[in-house]
């Protein structure tokens, strides 16, 4: 819940705020076996101010549904759980909590709804401290481990210990105690908050390298860098752990049961990072958990590397759950992929930098075109289904953009403060204007103005209406018919060209770290996890944590304000149409 949309902190009343009851309901379903809701007081709506974790208060906190007329919620805590990285990671947070007025919620599994764990540091004897008072608000959101359901699994020394490459590394192995703080901006006295397990090689591994049979699958849309991740999983498994049985599953999830596999070796993948796309091919839809896990079993696969976006990670969670149900010695590792940068918790998704860089070329072209003609209006459409990160960062990087439209910030065309007025003003001042828009921008506005049927892709994602073509036509019509001015309109849609390029240098390095983190995690027996950087250090994150919310541009954050300050575009906050 920390830092997820819909929750905040009210400084004045020192309470948690939530935008709507259903957001809270969802959270409770994920995290609470039972709980009490005590009506307390209401107060007028107040904007959300800062993220929080509900367990930061040592005794009691109140939760105010400040944007609704609903009553406050109040939870009483009676006990904290001791922290031992290996033994406590699966305990539902609320095992030791009691509540006054019974209201029962089903607890989602750890994977589909992550369970934060209240924790204390180990004492010097490596045992949890008994002292409940030693409570500094530390929460570990841990990932599952194979020993949770296969307690007698043997361990083996990590082959990296004998690796020449790692011979002079000071700390070859990550300490089991190492965790990463989710929030790094803190104040004196504030609770330590949520942490994730640090990624990296562990001293003991839970697979004999010669017995590893790994597979890699890529699902969802393309993104620069997928081939690099595939390459680095293959090369990393081989060079660091001596694994040489690696299968490529072709064509996404459905490939497990409907396509042939491809043997992957360092030689086969040697050059693939120089190509866009995925050598394994990808698809949407076709996730059949039972068929997939049957196939994993039939092929004797014991490490599954799944590269894909939010939908794919939900699929990975379902596979992990089934694997756990069947008590298989199979590690399931997710590597988050999305060009939209819409995956929660992680700093940034791979391929995003490349996409922003590539978008510059389209914006430059639009700018060159429109400054070379009279009344030039350039429109560049970029990807971003629900999150306008590519558009926002490409705009900030370019300085040639007059206006950036993203899904998170509704806009309107007519009247005071509208887009037409702004375009007219810029044409008057500069003779040209460049508009960048994310494909998901203005969808509600657009669907109200055209006869749209709601279509979905094979994965169930809503198919978007073409805002670029629509806006182009609207601007043309407005200026020629209403204003009697002929505008020179240039519409550029580079979306698939951006997505299809190979990753740039920094994304290549990033992809390598992701692949290696995933390998180390799987070899160390972690499973049901996603890897990714949290405040620049790589972490193992419970899959449910990255799928429960979408990362979107927060209009109340400074980055959007920086954009508005740089373009001086309208905020579209006051609609007069
Ligand atoms: N809730 C879910 N449970 C199981 N599988 C899912 C779920 N949602 C999506 N999938 C499967 O995950 C795969 C990819 O999903 P989707 O097409 O939504 O792309 P994605 O992974 O979100 O990537 P992107 O949106 O970045 O292109 C599909 O094969 C789809 O069937
Ligand atoms: O046309 P496709 O391949 O389904 O993908 C389009 C979608 O994929 C994404 O690139 C990632 O979700 C979106 O930005 C875009 O809407
Ligand atoms: Mg998606």
Task: Describe the model.
It is a single chain. With 577 residues, the chain is an alpha/beta fold. The chain is built from 15 helices and 23 strands. Strands 7, 8, 10, 11, 13, 14, 15, 16, 17, 22 and 23 form an eleven-stranded mixed beta sheet that branches. The protein has a four-stranded mixed beta sheet with strand order 1-2-4-5. Strands 19-20-18-21 form a four-stranded parallel beta sheet, sandwiched between helices. Strand 16, helix 6 and strand 17 form a beta-alpha-beta unit. It is elongated. 49% of the residues are buried. The chain binds adenosine-5'-triphosphate (ATP), 6-O-phosphono-beta-D-fructofuranose and magnesium ion. Magnesium ion binds next to helix 6.
């Amino acid at each position: 819940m920390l830092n997820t949309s819909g929750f905040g902190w009210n400084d004045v009343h020192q309470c948690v705020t939530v935008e709507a009851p259903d957001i809270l309901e969802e959270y409770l379903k994920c995290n609470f076996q039972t709980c009490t809701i005590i009506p307390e007081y209401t107060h007028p709506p107040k904007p959300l101010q800062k993220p929080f974790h509900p367990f930061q208060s040592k005794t009691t906190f109140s939760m105010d549904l400040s944007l609704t007329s609903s009553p406050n919620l109040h939870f009483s805590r009676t006990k904290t759980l001791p922290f031992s990285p290996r033994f406590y990671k699966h305990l539902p947070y609320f095992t030791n909590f009691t509540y006054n007025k019974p209201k029962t919620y089903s607890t989602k599994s750890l994977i589909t709804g992550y369970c934060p764990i209240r924790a204390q540091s180990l004492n010097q004897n490596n045992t949890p401290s008994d002292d409940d008072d030693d409570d500094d608000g530390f929460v570990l959101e841990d990932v599952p481990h194979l020993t949770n359901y296969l307690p007698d699994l043997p361990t083996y020394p990590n082959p990296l210990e004998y690796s020449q490459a790692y011979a002079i590394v000071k700390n070859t192995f990550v300490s089991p105690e190492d965790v990463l703080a989710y929030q790094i901006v803190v104040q004196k006295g504030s609770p330590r908050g949520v942490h994730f397990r640090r990624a990296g090689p562990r001293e003991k591994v839970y697979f004999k390298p010669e017995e590893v049979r790994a597979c890699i699958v890529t699902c969802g849309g393309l993104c620069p860098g997928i081939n690099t991740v595939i390459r680095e999983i293959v090369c990393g498994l081989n060079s660091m752990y001596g694994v040489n049985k690696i299968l490529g599953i072709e064509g996404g999830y459905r490939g497990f049961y409907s396509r042939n596999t491809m043997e992957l070796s360092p030689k086969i993948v040697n050059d693939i990072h120089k190509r866009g796309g995925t050598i394994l091919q990808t698809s949407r839809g076709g996730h059949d958990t039972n068929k997939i896990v049957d196939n994993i079993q039939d092929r004797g696969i014991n490490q599954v590397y799944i590269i894909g976006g939010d939908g794919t990670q939900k699929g990975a969670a379902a596979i992990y759950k089934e694997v756990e149900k069947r008590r298989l010695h199979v590690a399931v590792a997710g590597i988050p992929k999305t060009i939209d940068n819409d995956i929660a918790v992680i700093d940034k998704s791979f391929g995003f930098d490349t996409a922003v860089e590539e978008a510059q070329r389209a914006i430059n072209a639009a700018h060159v075109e429109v400054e070379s003609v009279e009344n030039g209006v350039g429109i560049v459409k970029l990807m971003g289904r629900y999150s306008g990160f590519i558009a926002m960062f490409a705009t900030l990087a370019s300085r040639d953009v007059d206006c950036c439209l993203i899904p998170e910030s509704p806009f309107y065309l007519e009247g005071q403060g509208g887009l037409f007025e702004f375009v007219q003003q810029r044409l008057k001042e500069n003779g040209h204007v460049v508009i960048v828009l994310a494909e998901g921008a203005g969808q509600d506005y657009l669907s109200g103005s055209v006869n749209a049927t709601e279509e979905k892709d094979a994965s169930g994602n809503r198919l978007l209406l073409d805002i670029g073509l629509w806006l182009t036509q609207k601007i043309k019509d407005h200026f020629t018919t209403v204003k009697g001015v002929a505008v020179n309109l240039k519409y550029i849609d580079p979306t698939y060209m951006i997505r299809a390029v190979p990753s740039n240098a920094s994304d290549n390095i990033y992809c390598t770290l992701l692949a290696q983190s995933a390998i180390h995690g799987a070899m160390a027996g972690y499973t049901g996890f996603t890897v990714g950087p949290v405040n620049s250090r790589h972490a193992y994150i419970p899959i449910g944590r990255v799928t429960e919310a979408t990362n979107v541009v927060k209009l109340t954050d400074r980055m959007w304000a920086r954009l508005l300050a740089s373009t001086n575009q309208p905020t579209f906050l006051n609609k007069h149409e």
